Amino acid sequence: MLRLLTFLLFLPVWGANMIQAQADPAGTGQVLKARIGSNLKRLPSATDLVQDSINMAIKADLRALLDKDDAHTADFEDLQMTRVDAPDGAFRLFTWNLPRNDGQHLFEGFLLARTPKGQALYELRDMTAKIPSPEVPELGPDKWYGALYYEVVPRQKGGRTVYTLLGWKGHSKAETRKVIEILTFKSGKPRFGAPLFGSGSSATPRNAGSKLKAMRKVYGYAANLSMTLRYDPSLEAIIMDHLSPSRADLKDNWAFYGPDMTHDGFYWHKGEWWFGPEIDLRAPDTGKPGGAKDKGSR
Q1: 280-295 pLDDT per residue, tens
Q2: Which one of 30, 128, 233, 237 counts the least CB within 10 Å of its CB?
Q3: How far is the C-alpha of 284 from the C-alpha of 235, rounded, in Å?
Q4: Using an 8 Å Cβ cutoff, are 182 and 194 in contact?
């Protein structure tokens, strides 16, 4: 019965899409992009069930766009969706989210990659609920720790390029998260997460006590606050707000964390991201590995 109801809800969206598709004979994709934007705007006010049907239409339209031969070079500036492009042209990554009625978020994504065999398109499947320790595992497109990626930082390691992604992750009505993700390609296939977080960064709030190196970094904070997480090219570092609990007895309760007016960072050093705590942005060199304040994680 639920499947039938979902299908009936999807029919008006599908029918409108089929009719409008005839209005794009030149194959420019403008109709598809406009329709994706329109459907994305509908998501926040829709019920979860209606969101699912709208999302099916979004994915169908985006797949049609990205299956085109020129998808790697096409102009997507007018596509109203979060997108990051690798500076070297290795991939284009499209992400969006479904804000659920209970305050949680479902993330969707497509990764368009260049491979030795040509263009490859991967649909990303958000499996956040099945990843209890998000900093630990290496993941693939079918099991993805979903986020909206807004920045990509390429680095060289061992003769290959690794890509660091910065992302926003709505989590609940009380908590929001930011993510530092690592994207690599093995035999042309994408892998999310890699043990590239070096000195001072392996024992963190989300895997404290573990001797394993983190595959990605996840930071939680109060949903009514904001956290800076950005790459600063002048410092050659990922700069972020340091998060602290609002009261000492709320330690490890991430929904009560927020910026405390200090800053931390990660510097690329010896083929890894090394943690630099207590960075003075007026004298940022003090936070670099080997600098005066290279004391490890707080």
Answers
A1: 877 756 667 754 343 3
A2: 233
A3: 7
A4: yes
- Residue 12: phi, psi to the nearest 5? -60, -40
Q: Taking the CA of residue 128 as centre, how many other CA atoms within 13 Å lie in the half-sphere pointing to its CB? A: 17
Kindly report the number of other CB atoms within 10 A of residue 27's CB atom: 10
Nearest to 178, CA basis, from 159, 154, 150: 150
- The one-letter amino acid at 273: W
Q: Could you give the CA distance from residue 210 to residue 213 in angstroms, rounded to a whole number?
A: 8
Work out whether strand 237-245 and strand 82-85 pair parallel, antiparallel, or are unpaired: unpaired
Answer whether 83's CB lies under 8 Å from 33's CB.
Answer: no
Q: How far apart are CA 17 and CA 8, in angstroms?
A: 15
pLDDT tens-place string over residues 108-154: 999 999 988 889 999 999 999 999 999 999 999 999 999 999 999 99
E strand segments, the chain: 82-85, 91-99, 105-115, 118-125, 148-157, 160-170, 175-186, 189-192, 217-222, 229-232, 237-245, 257-269, 272-276
Q: Encoding tokens for residue 36?
A: 């994706």
- CA angle at 60 for the pair 55 and 65, rounded to the nearest 5°: 125
* Cα distance between residue 235 and residue 288, in whole Å: 9
Secondary structure tally for the chain: helices H, strands E: 3, 13
- Residue position matching structure tokens 């509908």: 42
Instruction: Quote the CA–CA distance of 62 and 56 in Å, as a whole number.
Output: 10
